[in-house]
Write a structure and sequence with these properties.
The protein is an alpha+beta fold. It contains 9 helices and 18 strands. The longest helix has 21 residues.
Length: about 350
Amino acid sequence: MSKKRIDGLRKKMKAENLDGLIVTYLDHVRYLSGFTGSAGLLVISGGRAEFFTDFRYKDQAAKEVTGARINIIKRLPTAALKDFPHLNVRNRKYGFNGEYLTITDRKRLQESLPDAILVSCDGIFTELGWVKEPPEVANISQAVKIGDAAFERVLPLVRPGARESEIAAELEYQMKMMGSEKPAFETIIASGYRSALPHGVASLKKVQKGDLVTFDFGATVGGYVSDLTRTVVVGKATARQKKVYEVVLRANKAGIRKVRPGVSGKAVDRACRTVITRAGYGKKFGHGTGHGIGFFVHVGPRLSTVSDDKLMINNVITIEPGIYFSGWGGVRIEDDVQVTRGGCKVLTRAPKNLLEL
């Protein structure tokens, strides 16, 4: 798998007239080499791939890294390349991902390779991991299953007096016990007025009777993530809560129906947004409809009003429309969806009917 991914980057290097790539972002390093540690760097050239890490990860790298020669270094990875003269060739042109490289590390790289030419080439990395191989889909599917099960297990805790942080801790514990490596991202539990915050990470606020409570969380399996959002009501839902929920649910389903190969992210977004706008809530849906997931929690294709990304077979994307009212609350429903040859497959199985707890 690593060799195939590295060879794919080599084709892009050739198209960009690059002699090599310096990969510093650890998620990219893991995706390309298999290394899961916290200090590593990958250099890819036309004829070889070399991985650099320090003594702490000597045994781990030997076990995990494939497709690259392992070098144990005594400096920071970006500073250590100076110890490898064969990399510092006059006018050799290396690309790097400037989006994930600090100014300090950029300076270290140039000092390590004074005779080389370093150029930022973020575009080479843009579609990294968009299209999934079957083992990748399997890992995502397992992460989705863990998220579904953890959501069901934690629902009994959602009652008046429970803190959002306590619910989040139990949710993450349950996912860990079922095999998740770590949360896919910082868990969002937002209740009452805080449910109007699309990224309202769990706080010390206590849940109250009548609150809308939004869960947005994910598990990680083999480095691959899930991303699930559900909104519930503590007690009996009001007429307004039911109406808003029903509109978001219809939008979610409309977006899913639009998913198929060749469709643009803009078109899927429009399918969701049209439902919400026609219901009179268009100004209350202020974010995009979704994004790709996989080895990274936010990758392409993007699903938004301005996205021309085209869906491809074995993209795995989220469909997550929402409606938010400051000071009142909000509703978001999110599913993970695999693009298939004939349309799509919804991986998420957590119930989407409005739960009144």
